[in-house]
Amino acid sequence: MIISAFDRSDIESTAKSIGVLDFINRPIFRTALVDKLTYWLDHKKENNTDNDDIDCELSGIRLLVAEDNDINWEIISELLRMHGISADRAANGRECINMLGMAPDEKYFIILMDIQMPVLDGFGATKEIRQMDDKKKAGIPIIAMTANAFAKDVNDCIEAGMNAHIAKPVNLKLLMAEIKKYMGRK
Can you say how many angstroms the Cα of residue 14 is from the centroid of all Cα atoms in its chain? Predict the structure, then answer.
């Protein structure tokens, strides 16, 4: 694994060809480091797939992530990038609605929605998205990402119109499994 504060695009293919498995951007956040190490340790144990297979399976999709916290955004965007998934950030629910509304059709595959955000929270944003005139955009899968993980919290998310709930800190395997559900894969 290479740790660097610099753009890795110039060395990425060469590094992978000599056995580098992954990259971590500096500054290093403990959660991101633990997630990467956990991923690769679990990956090595299972040994039923490699990083290229995962990247091919998910590569090219783009998500809209509604997240107001800079550190949480950095972590989730890095986790997604590890799987070849692109993401755009909305810093609050109102921004999420606006970005989805102005986006070309099918630009975003899924929305990852924080619940507690300024301006408009995840519940309000989800309700407004579900009422959009554009039926495709109104029907986009929305996955709640929140530290509130009691059964009532999960139920509140579903009742607000979200499709699923992932607790923070985000479990990478659960998130990838949830994303794959909407790709028609199990």
Answer: 27
In 3D space, the residue among 66, 60, 74 whose CA is nearest the CA of residue 90 turns out to be 66
Whose structure tokens read 């290229």?
Answer: 52
Q: Where are the domains of the chain?
A: 1-48, 50-181
Q: Which positions ≥6 away from 82 have C-beta within 8 Å?
A: 22, 36, 39, 172
Over the stretch 62-108, which tens digit does the pLDDT of each residue have?
999 999 999 889 889 988 888 889 999 999 999 999 999 999 988 99
As given in the structure block, the two tokens for residue 152 are 């009532």
pTM (two decimals): 0.70
CATH class of the domain whose range is 50-181: alpha beta
Q: In this structure, what token pair is assigned to residue 61?
A: 């999709």
CA–CA dist 84, 78 (Å, integer): 10
